[in-house]
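Treating backbone geometry as a discrete language has practical consequences that deserve illustration. No coordinates are needed to read the tokens, only the vocabulary itself. For completeness, the protein is quoted in full, as a sequence line and a line of structure tokens:
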Amino acid sequence: MASPFRSLVEDESRYNKSFNLFLERSSEHQCMQDFIHGVLPEIFQKIGKGKSSLNVIGVGSGAGQIDLQMFSQMRLKLPGITVSNEVVEPSGDMLFKYKVLVSKTPNLEYINFTWNKMTASEFETHWKEKKLDKKFDFIHMIQMLYYVKDPDATVSFFRSLLSDSGKLVIILVSGQSGWGKLWKTYRAELCNTEISQCVTTGDIRTFLDSKGIPYNSYLLPSQMDITECFTEGDEKGELLLDFLTEVIDFSKNASPTLKAGVMALLRHPECSSEVDGKVIFNNNLEVLVVEP
């Protein structure tokens, strides 16, 4: 059954507000930095061995900050490399911000950017219609599979574009995180069936294992302070609650029973821990590095 609520992704302004607050209250960006600086350089060394140029796709690249940090690490590991970079991003606003960031960032002459204002599925259709056979050395999907209709099919298509030594990097919340527990418990009530809002790496692992597709995984420990969610009427708490449930004005629109159940689960040890009077939500992410 489809969720009776309006999904937060339908209101871009409120989504961006709640997302920015989430970044302030969580260690999400920090754990990504640790991966980009600690693990990714070795992956770049493997895919760049013996090559003078690399083909890259960023699927759902947003405003480009993470992309440029990855390219910075790539450049350090592979100093003479040139890059052909396909950016796939449906939001015109995000693409504009990405282009501004590129214009303000020095020493990016080695990257040729192609801007695709489209969803992942539109890019797939466009690619197949043009019968293109270009292969890619590095494809990344960071926190974006929630917004596609069929994550397994999306992973399959982009994996089919990998070169022999290419890698597909997927980052999502871990199936063992607080998100995983929340979605497992309230999938029917909260999850938008038009997209795959409640997907975790647990789901993608199940798909990859069923097809015998090889991959490596890395856990990115992360947490989020959700204490404000438990103060009735707190504006920031309401925004965080919307982000956690992906529902617009969850506390106003949810039935008393559903709201009480969600609030109790958010405090439950399987979702959060209490530290110095604060409620700290398990926001662990996981990286899957998928082989061709």
